[in-house]
Amino acid sequence: MKLLINKKLFLSSWAMAERSTSTNNTVSALNNILLEASYEKVLLKATDVKTAIICNANGVTVQEPGEVLFPVKMVSELFKKIEGDEFSLEERNGKIVVKAEKSKYTFPCYPTKEFPVLKTSEGATFFAKTTAIEFSKVLEEGAICASSQEEYPLYLSSVLIRARNNGMIDVVSTDSRRLALSKEVILAGPDNEEESSLLPMKTVKDLLRTLQSLPAETEINLFVDAAQFYFKTENLEYSIRKVDSKFPSFERIIPQGYATTAFCDRLSLISALERVDVIVRDFTKTAIINVSPEEQKITLRGKAPDFGIAKEEFQAQVEGEGLTIGVNSKFFLEALRVIREERAVIQFNGATNQIGIKRENSDNFLCLIAPINLTEEDLAIQEEE
């Protein structure tokens, strides 16, 4: 095999493949990237067992076809730091020779037969068709409540993706203390009334990074089979092993109405909450929210023994009953940050029921957060000011 490689173009493809390798797996082939070069196309293949990717390698001129299994840990650094805009790569008798300007590197490669055969979407069931920007948005919003740690039940650290033949896709996650639901219109839905898959949160994060590296309007076809979920574009195919678990029936816990609704400037609320979070995040993590329909304002408070009391006030349009409620400041901030619109709607059903966060004039995103029970000491903060 002999290749001439444009460094900048090639590294953009290499980076996508590298994310699907495993740097600490005892199976040596999983710490490598397989390059298959023919005169028609050049492919990069990588897997860590849970995910796999097959993508076109950009910027490669094939002078002699062939295939090679690269040891990622060393080769990645070399490709990134090698001098010049292009370099040549040749494989002969189990050794790779890389030349660039006055540099020359020779190192061994693994036998390609050690690399596993990767499953593809051929023969899988069509799931949905969407674009990179829309799928990225719905995944980012709907996945915020999944636990980042592998937990049991497995659905607590997983993300449910559900497509319907009415042209909608839903992404849902929960860690038992909160739940996020994001909806989006798609280009095409499944042939069946509904298709769904449960994916591990860790691999969804990798998928998001891949999505965000693509042009916004890139068309994406999604497929599914008994074990895998496939994400396919013209230039790459990404597969994720599904989670063997059942996501709970979340619709029944979504409130049908609220006793209190507050409309507020989202950035003002985030700024105020970030300042309170500085005080409480290493102590109780509790932001105490007072909603006043009489004064049309929201007051945030927090307390830490080594600091004292924080208080933030800002105007809001409040409808319904007044109340005081506690909420995890980190959870509240994460929900507000993904909305990315000027106004946020915060809804309450008393001090002991879930808080709802959504966009104004839209039902395509909802985050429910369980309140924190306030002690008498918490409620006495106002008197201490």
In short:
It contains eight helices and 26 strands. It is an alpha+beta fold and 385 residues long.
Structure description:
This protein is α+β, with helices and mostly antiparallel strands. The protein has 8 helices and 26 strands. The chain has helices at residues 7-18, 72-81, 132-142, 201-212, 266-280, 329-339, 376-379, 381-384, and strands spanning 2-6, 32-37, 42-47, 51-56, 60-64, 66-71, 86-92, 95-100, 103-108, 125-131, 158-164, 168-174, 178-185, 194-200, 219-224, 228-232, 236-241, 260-265, 286-292, 297-304, 308-315, 317-320, 323-328, 343-348, 355-359, 365-369. The strands form 4 sheets. It has a 9-stranded antiparallel β-sheet with strand order 14-11-12-13-26-25-24-18-22. Strand 15 and strand 16 (228-232) form a beta hairpin. It is elongated.
Cα separation of the termini: 75 Å
Say what oligomer this is: single chain
Shape: elongated
Q: How large is the count of helical segments? A: 8
- Percent in strands: 35-45%
Q: What are the low-pLDDT stretches, counting only 5+ consecutive residues below 50? A: none
- Which structural class fits the helix and strand makeup? alpha+beta
Average residue pLDDT: 92
Give me the side-by-side strand order of the main sheet: 14-11-12-13-26-25-24-18-22
Q: Tell me the total number of β-strands.
A: 26
What percent of the residues sit in helical stretches (DSSP H or I)?
10-25%
Major sheet: 9 strands, antiparallel
Gyration radius from CA atoms, angstroms? 25 Å
